Amino acid sequence: MNTSASAPPLSVVILAAGEGKRMKSRLPKVLQPLAARPLLAHVIAAARALAPARIHIVHGHGGEQVRAVFTDPALNWVHQAEQLGTGHALQQAAPHIADGEVVLVLYGDVPLLRPATLARLVDIAAGGELALLTMRPGDPGGYGRIVRDATGKVARIVEQKDASSEELRIGECNTGVLAAPAGRLKSWLASLCNDNAQREYYLTDVIGLAVRSGVAVTPVQLADPIEALGVNDKIQLAELEAVLRRNAALELMRAGVTVADPLRLDVRGEVMHGQDVSLDVNVILEGRVVLGDRVRIGAGCIVRDSEIGDDTELFPYSVLDGAVVGAEARIGPFSRVRPTTRLADGVHIGNFVEVKNSTLGEESKANHLSYVGDAEVGARVNVGAGTIIANYDGANKHRTHIGAGAHTGSNSVLVAPITVGEGATIAAGSTVTREVPAGKLTIARARQVTLEGWQRPVKPKK
Ligand code: UD1
Ligand code: CA
C-alpha cells in the first residue's frame, strides 16, 4: 500500500482530543478496551498498515494518561488545549506536515476501518483530489450529511445540528475519514470559521472549500457501514466487541478450527494454530496465542500469551497466562498456569493446581491441589496431592530444584530454597527444609504414637 515510488509521503492524523463524556469513566475514551486493546491501538494499527511517514495524534483530555500507554517514539503527539472542533483539532497538527505530503484523517474512536479502505482514499488524494469516506447507515441520526449538487457531485457536508429538514432526509453520511493533498488542506483549514450551531471549527467545511477552489471531491462509499462505527458509550463499545468477536470466530472456522459456538468465543488478540484445533464454549484467547495441531480447549478456559503443543488438552475452566506447554499435555479442569512457566511434553496439571514461574520436565504430574512456584522440576516427577512449595519468606522468593523421578508425598511442604535429589521420596505430611537426598525416603513429621491407658474426659453427671 502506498508503495509506488512516486507516491508522496503520507501523514496520518488521528483526532483523539475529545473527552468522551458518555463513557462515564475516568479512563479516557480512546483508552477504553476493545478486544483487550485500547481503542486508539486499533486505529494506530490500521494507520501503521499504510506505512506512513508520520502518525500524528491530536490529544487533549487525559492526554498524559493516553501518551503513557503508547510509548512508540515515532508517534508525534500534538496537544489541543481546548476542543474547538474537528477542524481546529487538525489545525494543531498542520504545522507538523509538509505541503508535499498526503494527509489521512482518522478518529481515535473509530477502530474498525480496514487498511484496504484507507489505502483507496490515500491513492485518490495522491492524485490531487480530496477523498471522502461516506456511508449509508440504517439510522443517519447524528451524522453529517453529504449534500450533492444537481449533477450528483459532492458539494458540501452539513452537520445534523445545522441541517434543514430537507437535508436531514439525506441518507448518505460522513464517516469523518478523509484524505487530501496537505498543501491544499492546510489552506482550507486556515480559512475555517465557526459560525455554526455548535460554534465549532468543523473539519467538514473543507469539503465545500475544496469544491469552490476547483479540487475534485471523490466520495468512497463503504459497502458496510460497520467499518466506520464510532464508539461514544459503553453500548457502542459492546456492539463493536460483538463485531470483532464474530469476525475472529469466522476467520478461525474458515481456517479449519472447530468452534463449538462462535457467539461464545472471544479472541482478543492474535491466534496462530495448526490443524484440527477445537475450542469449546466460553473460551477466551488473549494476546498472542499459538496452538499446535489437534489442541483441544475445554469450556471456560482462558489462554493469554501462551503456546500449546500438538495434542495437548485443556480441560474446563483452566487459566493459562504466559506459559509454554509441550505436546500431549493435560491441564485442568480448574488449573492455573502463570507466567514464565514451561511444561514439557506429556505433563499433567490437575484440578486446583497453581504453577508459577516453574519448569516441569517430561511426563511430570501435579494432579491435585498443589502450588508449584519458582521451581525446576525434572522429568517423571510426581507432585503428590496437596504438595506446597513454600517459595516466599515474606520478602524474597527462593528457588526449588526437584530431581527427575522424585515423588513428593501428599500434603508435603517444601520450604525453599531447597533441592530434592533424583528419585527421592518425601513422605506424606512432611515439611522439608533441608536438602532431600536422592533415591531415599525422607520423613519429616512427628512419629505416630498411641497412648495406652489414656481416657477421654467425661462430662460430670448432674
Ligand atoms: C463528526 C463529523 C460528522 C461525522 C461524524 C462521524 C465534524 C464537524 N463532524 O461529528 O460529519 O458524521 O464525525 O462520526 O467533523 N475531536 C478532537 N478535537 C475536537 C473535536 C473533536 O480531537 O475539538 C475528535 C474527537 O475526539 C473524535 C473526533 O474528533 O475522535 C470526532 O469528534 P466528534 O465530536 O465525535 O464529532 P461528531 O460531532 O460526531
Ligand atoms: Ca462522534
Report a brief summary of the structure.
The protein is an alpha/beta fold. Helix content is 16%, strand content 31%.
Please explain how this structure is put together:
This protein has 462 residues and is α/β, with parallel strands linked by helices. It folds into two domains: 219 residues, Spore Coat Polysaccharide Biosynthesis Protein SpsA, Chain A, CATH 3.90.550; 209 residues, 3 Solenoid (UDP N-Acetylglucosamine Acyltransferase, domain 1), CATH 2.160.10.10. The protein has seven helices and 39 strands. Strands 13, 15, 17, 18, 20, 21, 23, 24, 26, 27, 29, 30, 33 and 36 form a 14-stranded parallel beta sheet that branches. The protein has an eleven-stranded parallel beta sheet with strand order 12-14-16-19-22-25-28-31-34-37-39, covered by helices on one side. A seven-stranded mixed beta sheet has the order 5-4-1-6-10-7-11, sandwiched between helices. Helix 2 links the parallel strand 4 and strand 5. It is elongated, with a radius of gyration of 31 Å. It binds uridine-diphosphate-N-acetylglucosamine and calcium ion. The site of calcium ion has 2 residues, from loops.
What key attributes describe this structure?
462 residues, alpha/beta, Spore Coat Polysaccharide Biosynthesis Protein SpsA, Chain A, UDP N-Acetylglucosamine Acyltransferase, domain 1, 14-stranded parallel beta sheet, eleven-stranded parallel beta sheet, 16% helix, elongated, binds uridine-diphosphate-N-acetylglucosamine, binds calcium ion
